[in-house]
């Protein structure tokens, strides 16, 4: 897809934290800049991987403002602003627009299960009207986590009611047939479809999608950048194979603490292991398993990141 606002490789960025669980903005900004220098076109902050729903409204604003103040461009960031509360969703979305972000990622209202498409339409219609334009709205389809899927008919209704406002979707379902159905139905209307699964990057780009927004991009973005630049051919195929292998490595242990463990060992920075409850850091056994699984892919040491001797110990 040409002219996609966030076309390419977008990392679902981990949120660095201090020992007291407050955001560590210096550490997070450093990581964000490394990602942009090593294959990422954009950054999804405050999503699932960033533990958005473990942070309060004011903390989420603080994180966005803090990254911008530390030199991470607002234009490359897609903050997650979808909350169970309509008012909070609107407030965070307007805040992102005021900071200079071009788009936001919206979870559906996830607390009440089994809402009708009419109910979901009413929610997102209200969000769009209260925000009042000036920022692209992306839907976050992750039914395994939210338990609230987006149907094709709902997406079509939102596009009809708000042309040019609902710009795309991140599909983290792992169901490529669903991604392809959204491409087939809506790509001709400029609707951008992003895979939440690294193994589909090359395929979705070839079939009219816009790219990916993925957790494993925190560590494998170097190869994602190759796939996005080359698309086809031996180099792209080899890079896609690495994306697939590292995605499987990332999910061999609990995903979010596992990625933190890989970055902690790769950088020698133990601070990356800090995670907010109810998540917990990996045990020593699972940490060793995560490291060994990533080593088996050939991805370590991470390109662009100095090797650390103690990381392998």
Automatic annotation (TrEMBL):
The keyword Zinc does not apply. Belongs to the DapA family. It comes from the Bacteria. Its EC number is 4.1.3.3, 4.2.1.41, 4.3.3.7. GO terms for molecular function: 4-hydroxy-tetrahydrodipicolinate synthase activity; 5-dehydro-4-deoxyglucarate dehydratase activity; N-acetylneuraminate lyase activity. It is an enzyme of class 4 (lyase). Pfam families: DHDPS. InterPro entries: Aldolase_TIM, DapA-like. PANTHER family: BLR3884 PROTEIN, DIHYDRODIPICOLINATE SYNTHASE. This is Dihydrodipicolinate synthase family protein. It comes from Sediminicoccus rosea. Keywords: Lyase. The keyword Lyase applies.
